[in-house]
Specification:
Elements (H helix, E strand, L loop, with lengths): L4 H11 L26 H18 L3 E7 L9 H7 L6 E7 L5 E4 L5 H7 L4 E4 L2 H12 L3 E5 L13 H10 L4 E4 L1 H7 L5 H24 L6 H14 L7 E7 L21 E7 L2 E2 L2 E2 L2 E7 L4 H20 L6 H4 L4 H5 L10 E5 L1 E7 L8 H4 L12 E9 L6 E10 L4 E3 L10 E2 L2
Parallel strand pairs: 1-5, 3-4, 5-6, 11-17
Antiparallel strand pairs: 1-2, 2-3, 7-8, 8-11, 9-10, 12-13, 12-14, 14-15, 15-16
Helix pairs in contact: 1-8, 1-9, 8-9
């Protein structure tokens, strides 16, 4: 039977995954493997808890109350809670982490508990009024100094609970000192373990395959919505999570900007378009990322020069990043953008990435909207096992013309390893 075009596209993307590690690169026990949460080993989970408790001890905290709320895309979210629990309930979850003794997780629906026990590393799981249960346990244990940890994955800020929940805590825990522990907890997650890096490498292969499906699905007359749906199929077939998938077509003759659609639409793609994408797929809250730019028909001379400049900066970063390099040194990679007479409209050359954006943020021209975020990292050094995105976003000053090239990887002991093999810095053309 002849394979349809759609079937061939999906098969082509799936072939890029052949030979890669299993979804998590891990070995979960029977009955625990799922598509929402990577099943990290008990040793990995114990190591995380030990590092958290070590920091709690330095700060004199008797307990942490970790709050999880809301996901992004088809991910359960609740990054910080998952980090210690290997699970997160629907909508919201609370996790009480004492300085010594067993962890207790609170969720709302009793019927979810058997499934939670199959997946989570936490044994004591209770249902009901989750926040009320946490307050009662804190009072019962007599804790007087408690750190609050928010959901995580909120760039450049460290919120804990919604105002109503925070007010209820204060009223129910009179005499208990509550302090925001989110910033330092977020920082503990930045140096990745071997198991986490295995998940990120698998995420890179998924993102590569997804982008190949997106490219192969593109033709004049197609829509970004139909292309996104082809990506969705590959994601579903491989149990992938993703927070978003930007895909957009922009006329090179009459451009309206240089940013793809967050919500792809049914507008037909015209010849003479530059396609821009921002795809990030993976497992749980561990995502790789690609920022792609390619063309429907040959690029104009100006768009070709934009692409060549962005590709050079991207490839220079991949070849040149190394541990110990500071934000000030990363700024040197901006030189080709300035030399070409282009601008960097936003974003940074090097940004922390795994479960959405995090530290560090390095490499921004003064024209970049993101330049203020880089100031705290000018003299901060890159460290081995930090996972990053590297991205060059370039535009023509005063005109709505621009594009980007970017990918993801990790700082190693000697340099940089990319998670991606997709040829994002190769100029690719779809013939209309």
């Amino acid at each position: 039977m002849q394979m349809t075009r759609r079937g061939a596209i999906i098969a082509g993307g799936a072939s890029l995954l052949a030979g890669t590690a299993a979804a998590e690169g891990l070995n979960p026990p029977p009955g625990a493997a799922n598509d929402a949460f990577p099943i990290f080993s008990d040793a990995e989970m114990a190591g995380r808890l030990a590092r958290v408790r070590e920091e709690m001890g330095r700060r004199g905290l008797e307990a942490l109350l970790v709050y999880g709320h809301t996901g992004v895309g088809n991910s359960p979210g609740q990054v910080n809670l998952q980090y210690l629990a290997r699970y997160a309930a629907v909508i919201e979850t609370y996790l009480l982490v004492p300085a010594d003794g067993a962890l207790t997780m609170f969720l709302a629906v009793p019927y979810h508990i058997p499934n939670a026990r199959e997946i989570s590393s936490v044994d004591d799981i209770r249902w009901g009024d989750a926040l009320g249960g946490a307050i009662g346990e804190i009072k019962g244990k007599g804790f007087k100094k408690v750190g609050l940890v928010g959901p995580g994955a909120v760039a450049h800020s460290g919120p804990t609970l919604f105002a109503e929940g925070r007010d209820r805590l204060a009223a129910g825990l009179e005499g208990v000192r509550l302090e925001n522990a989110t910033p330092w907890f977020d920082d503990l997650r930045l140096i990745k373990s071997d198991e986490e890096l295995a998940v990120m490498r698998s995420a890179g292969a998924l993102t590569d395959a997804a982008h190949e499906v997106v490219f192969a699905s593109t033709r004049a007359g197609a829509t970004s919505r139909s292309i996104r749906r082809a990506m969705d199929v590959l994601a579903a077939q491989n149990g992938a999570t993703y927070p978003f998938g930007h895909i957009g077509a922009i006329s090179m003759a009459v451009p309206q900007g240089f940013y793809p659609d967050f919500y792809p639409t049914d507008a037909p793609i015209a010849p003479g378009s530059v396609m821009m994408t921002e795809l990030c797929l993976g497992h749980g809250n561990y995502w790789a990322k690609l920022w792609g730019s390619y063309f429907v028909g040959e690029p104009t001379a100006e768009y070709r020069r934009l692409f060549e400049t962005a590709a050079k900066v991207h490839d220079d970063l991949v070849a040149g990043l190394k541990p110990g390099m500071t934000g000030r040194e990363v700024n040197a990679f901006l030189a080709p953008i300035a030399a070409a007479g282009f601008e960097q409209p936003a974003n940074v050359l090097v940004g922390g990435w795994s479960a959405m954006n995090h530290a560090p943020q390095m490499g921004a021209m003064t024209s970049s909207l993101s330049e203020p975020f880089t100031r705290p990292f000018v003299d901060v050094a890159l460290q081995p096992r930090q996972t990053l995105t590297v991205q060059a976003w370039v535009s023509v000053p005063g005109q709505p013309k621009g594009l980007w090239v970017g990918s993801s990887g990790v700082i190693t002991e000697t340099g940089y390893e990319s998670f991606n093999r997709y040829p994002v810095s190769k100029l690719r053309v779809v013939q209309p």
